[in-house]
Design a protein that fits this description.
Two copies of one chain form a homodimer. With 421 residues, chain A is α+β, with helices and mostly antiparallel strands. Chain A has helices spanning 6-24, 40-55, 100-115, 142-147, 166-173, 203-206, 245-261, 299-319, 339-351, 366-370, 397-420; strands at residues 59-62, 68-72, 80-87, 122-129, 190-198, 211-217, 219-228, 232-233, 268-270, 274-277, 283-284, 287-296, 323-332, 335-336, 358-361, 376-381. In chain A, α9 packs across α11 (397-420). The longest helix of chain A is centred in the C-terminal third of the chain and has 24 residues, at 397-420.
Chain lengths: 421, 421
């Protein structure tokens, strides 16, 4: 039995969706969804989700940083742990599915495994991460980093916008902040980490597919680039005597777009901010700052793209007699998804008559933080309109059923393989 | 006698400069120069400048909108009026010479004419305009427009940032607002209007010349152009699925620059403002608004440039699948300087061993407003660094002496011509 009975799949997928809706109501924001790390709503959410885990016959606990766990124990007490999950926190004014859906699907998998008496040769551990979005304290992936022993104790001193330190918030939540290291997992005990997540982009929709197998989580670099020329009167300064920072920045924006377009492996580069000074209609602007966000599936690809952008920018600045300054603000290495898990998810798609397009994740996920300690795999679910982090974030019900089918088949395939190993 | 004795020229030019400095102290702003329409400082300025006019044996009066006048009367009571002047008001944190120097030079011309017993066949009328900059009320050139009977009574209701109406400010100043029409001149009585002004641009400096003869005051059109695409996640949206308003705007900025560069008659076009929404590093911006300021010496040239910009912009928007909106905010027709006066100033330059490069004015001036009622001519004085509207605004002393020499020669040439006519 490697595929689910359709009625069963529909029923469980429907329950996962219903539970996403139920959790939407646990919000610290009027008229929208917002559930941040160590809030009362975080506590309430863990409580109800823990109850759902218990209902699926899982042992549950909360770890030292606030992640919620449920475990469907294997009959073999020395079995490894297959961890499946995502995050339960949200950005302000969020949608109902980003993160949440992945946890709900994992619980349904456990419920199905129990109900169908699957004899799993691994513990099936469901995790609901406490902080992926990083909206409360100036850091992201707190929950998953703690698992990989990457929780940085200096974070405890970070304060939120209300002046509350992470340490105090953890204490108020009932946690012992100095015990954070106990949340770290022993890599030897872990088989893999799987995560189902909405795509948060338009790729699957554009190819008319419900699901996609993630190849890598893109690395990213961000910078603020400032071009400095010379302010001047828009009427009295001839075109040939200008050192216009806006036109220089425009040339750079177009060059960045072209360089990313010319890449072969789905690299992207974005200018999302432009600041012009002095910023008056009748003044040639002396100084313009643009933001750069560049991402690639591999660090080499990203380095190549960045290097091309840098040399092109220097050329533009030199040709136009402007100076250029770079302020690098963020760097994250690319994380590859495990090739065996990619193949497994792809095979599971085939078993369910689903196509399995491969795509990279341009956004960050908890799986990134877990990757140093075990193989990771991710399954993307189509995002209508590519929308996320917004109340209009949605999923197609049928897609969710397909995701549950594929995850279930992958679970069975993994169980068969693990039994033979 | 068509040229000045060098000592006399130096002495009078030095006095003109000293008086610019003296007027700098009459400021409504601490630590900088600011003198706006109908302020106490406007009153104080008119008083002291009127005194200097009296010292040059001129009859003085203030007209119904607050312009200051001094007249050196011709022996022929039916003579026409040659008006020479500029404005006495300033922008906030201004330089000392923009406008002011032209009035001071005109007074020195009158003083010299008196001192040298020139028998002028016209009344030499010096005007100090009350509001060229338009910084107090949302309109410019109030003083010169009143002369051309273009004072719009609806302006009286405009309020300044303190909520004071122009009407009330005129009353407080001692004027009768409803008498504004009495400031209008009879065109039949006017020979011409001459204005010496700092260039406010870098052209004369770039060709290493002290003076330039103005050919035209550029016409201008201004717009806010909004490009609307689609916001998206900077990481998850592939390059080929974007409708990025920033890259579209950048392409338009470059196109605008190229179209202006390709023009033959000194047309200029400037994007000085860029507003990006939502304006986040990791979000492809759905909406970008840029400002456009385009100027040309002739209305036809300006129309051609604008038309090319419009069609190029529409093309860019269409190719990138964005929509585009135009909001035209300002339009001013180009004003040609009188060709006889251009030739006269050029000849006066020759008499003083000065070159006489011709150039257009990209900035607006009182002469624009006077043009409908009489021939106008302008002489530009080199602006070091092209700087104006800034405390660093400067002139080179020697350039001012040259300007006085040339204006004097032009006055004598005009007198000779008018005597023969």
């Amino acid at each position: 039995m490697t595929t689910l009975n359709p009625d069963l799949a529909n029923t469980h997928a429907a329950r996962a969706l219903l539970r996403c809706k139920t959790l939407s109501a646990i919000s610290q924001m009027q008229g929208g969804i917002h559930r941040e790390y160590l809030s009362k709503e975080h506590q309430a959410c863990n409580k109800i989700v823990g109850q759902w885990m218990n209902d699926a016959d899982m042992q549950t606990w909360q770890d030292e940083v606030g992640n919620l766990w449920g475990s469907l124990r294997s009959s073999n007490p020395n079995a490894k742990r297959l961890i499946i999950g995502s995050h339960l926190d949200t950005v302000p004014n969020a949608g109902a599915y980003d993160g949440i859906l992945g946890v709900m699907l994992a619980i349904e998998l456990a419920a199905l495994a129990k109900q169908l008496n699957l004899d799993l040769p691994f513990h099936l551990d469901v995790v609901g991460f406490c902080d992926e979005e990083g909206t409360r304290f100036a850091t992201t992936l707190i929950g998953s980093k703690a698992l990989a022993n990457e929780f940085n104790p200096s974070w405890l001193a970070i304060t939120d916008t209300q002046g509350m330190s992470m340490r105090q918030a953890m204490l108020d939540f009932g946690l012992q902040p100095d015990d954070f290291a106990k949340a770290a997992l022993n890599p030897d005990e872990i088989l893999a980490y799987w995560e189902a997540h909405i795509e948060q982009g338009p790729v699957l929709e554009s190819v008319d597919q419900a699901l996609g197998v993630v190849t890598a989580i893109a690395g990213a670099k961000r910078a603020m680039i400032t071009l400095t020329g010379h302010s001047g009167h828009a009427g009295t300064t001839p075109m040939n005597l200008r050192q216009d920072s806006v036109t220089a920045a425009a040339e750079l924006v177009i060059a960045i777009e072209k360089l990313a377009n010319d890449c072969k492996n789905g690299e992207v580069a974005t200018v999302g901010q432009v600041h012009v000074r002095p910023g008056a209609t009748n003044v040639i602007a002396g100084k313009t700052t643009i933001s750069l966000d560049a991402r690639a599936q591999s660090d080499n690809d990203l380095a190549d793209l960045i290097s091309n952008i840098e040399s092109t920018a220097e050329k533009i600045a030199k040709q136009r007699n402007l100076t250029i300054q770079w302020q690098w603000t963020h760097a994250a290495e690319a994380v590859q998804c495990d090739s065996y898990i990619q193949a497994l998810f792809s095979q599971a798609c085939t078993l369910n008559q689903e196509n399995s397009p491969f795509l990279a994740s341009g956004a960050g996920h908890d799986a990134m933080a877990i990757a140093p300690i075990c193989p990771i795999g991710m399954l993307f679910i189509r995002s209508p309109g590519g929308i996320s982090h917004h109340p209009a974030e949605a999923v197609i019900d049928e897609d969710v059923t397909k995701a549950l089918n594929v995850m279930f088949s992958a679970l069975v395939l993994q169980a068969n393989k693990s039994s033979k190993d």
